[in-house]
């Protein structure tokens, strides 16, 4: 399928008078479409399949690009 770079992003909220960080990650094009600011320091290369159908170019809410998926390949040692 391929990979794509997604970024965290934020938008200034005039009600709270501070930046609100999105619970989604998105491509630069998707972030620009919703008029938000990309946080370039927080990016991840992900499989395109994680981009949700709800909003083109965006992940699902509460997406964690660093969470591993698939089968567990090792067992942590009990170091008591």
What structural class do you assign from the helix and strand content? mainly beta
* Number of H- or I-type helical stretches: 1
Strand count, sense and closure of the main sheet?
Answer: 3 strands, antiparallel
Order of helices and strands: EEHE
- Round the mean pLDDT to the nearest integer and report it: 88
Measured as a percent range, the helix fraction is under 10%
Beta-strand percentage range? 25-35%
N/C terminus separation: 43 Å
Number of DSSP E strands? 3
> Spatial order of the strands in the main sheet?
2-1-3
* Rg, Cα atoms, Å: 16 Å
The global form is globular
Describe the structure.
The structure is a single chain. This protein has 80 residues and is mainly beta. The protein has a domain of 44 residues. It is 8% helix and 32% strand. The protein is built from one helix and three strands, in the order E-E-H-E. The protein has a three-stranded antiparallel β-sheet. Strand 1 and strand 2 form a beta hairpin. The longest helix is centred in the middle third of the chain and has 6 residues. The termini are far apart.
Q: What secondary-structure arrangement, pairings included, does this model have?
A:
Elements: E1 3-13, E2 18-21, H1 28-33, E3 37-47
Antiparallel strand pairs: 1-2, 1-3
């Amino acid at each position: 399928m391929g990979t794509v770079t997604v970024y965290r992003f934020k938008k200034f909220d005039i009600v709270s008078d501070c930046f609100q960080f999105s619970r989604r990650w998105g491509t630069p094009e998707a972030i620009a479409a919703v008029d938000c600011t990309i946080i370039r320091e927080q990016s991840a290369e992900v499989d395109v399949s994680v981009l949700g159908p709800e909003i083109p170019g965006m992940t699902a809410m509460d997406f964690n690009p660093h969470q591993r998926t698939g089968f567990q390949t090792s067992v942590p040692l009990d170091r008591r």
